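Lab notebook, bench 4. Still working through the backlog of constructs that have no structural model yet. Next entry is a single chain of 115 residues. Request: give me the structure tokens for it.
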Amino acid sequence: QVQLVESGGGLVQPGGSLRLSCAASRNIFTFNDMGWYRQAPGKERELVAAYTSGGNTRYGDSAAGRFTISRDIGKNIVYLRMNSLNPQDTAQYYCMGNYRGTVYWGEGTLVTVSA
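Model written out:
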């Protein structure tokens, strides 16, 4: 009954910025971990950023130094601020939440970086 819903994707030119948001449809529990993954055409899904309930963060190599993850733990909301976007960032971005071993995925939001 709990669903994750992303928003904020779209078309942006190289060098631009976007902020993605993800929120749970119901707050019947608090996710242990939340994060963002992405999948580009012809590539496997990869970690972009993750944020644990303890406040630890982890970034994928492609995101480090450019992207910032933040989270409202009690409200089950997670954000991803993306700066200095380039065409290689074009992908479907998925929100993830983990609660006691069960993983929840959003439907994804498309980010396209093109001049």
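Notes after review: Residues 31 and 99 are 5 Å apart (CA to CA). The first strand starts at residue 4 and ends at 7. Flag for follow-up if needed.
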